[in-house]
Amino acid sequence: MNLDDFYEKIVEFYPKSRSLVDEHILEYEERLDTVIFEDILFPFIHDDLMRDEPDRLRELFDYFEQVSEKADAHLMNVFQITILEKIGDDKEILNTAKKYMGVLTTKYQWEADRALGRDV
């Protein structure tokens, strides 16, 4: 699984993100993946975590587990240093996410926290 695969699937979860990603590419004349993950995609994920809707979050985190299992090295790096890292920025969000994370997603999120020097 690569970044293109990820974008194709994540816009199914967050259709409004498609136009924001397109605008980003027009503005920067390239796709800056870490910026897109943090500034465009993560706010949607954060909102879902704040709402704590079990069915939606189970589906999303099942997908994140697939990403954690099948991502190529570049996608895994971007996913880990953006989305998984940002989940750990807020204890409430992290605690909600932990209810839905699979084994690999949990492992990679923990590694992201450790890389930042967070107590885990």
Can you give keywords for this protein?
120 residues; mainly alpha; 7 helices; 0% strand
Written description of the protein model:
- The structure is a single chain.
- By secondary structure, the protein is mainly alpha-helical.
- It has one domain.
- It contains seven helices and no strands.
- Helix 2 packs antiparallel against helix 3, helix 3 packs across helix 5 and helix 4 crosses helix 7.
- The model has no long low-confidence stretch (mean pLDDT about 95).
Record the SSE blueprint.
Elements: H1 3-13, H2 16-28, H3 33-51, H4 54-70, H5 73-87, H6 91-98, H7 103-115
Helix pairs in contact: 2-3, 3-5, 4-7, 5-7
Distance N terminus to C terminus? 29 Å
Q: State the order of secondary-structure elements, H for helix, E for strand.
A: HHHHHHH
Q: What is the strand content? A: under 5%
Tell me about the largest β-sheet: none
**Morphology:** globular
Report the uncertain regions.
Answer: none
Quick synopsis:
With 120 residues, this protein is mainly α. The chain contains seven helices and no strands.
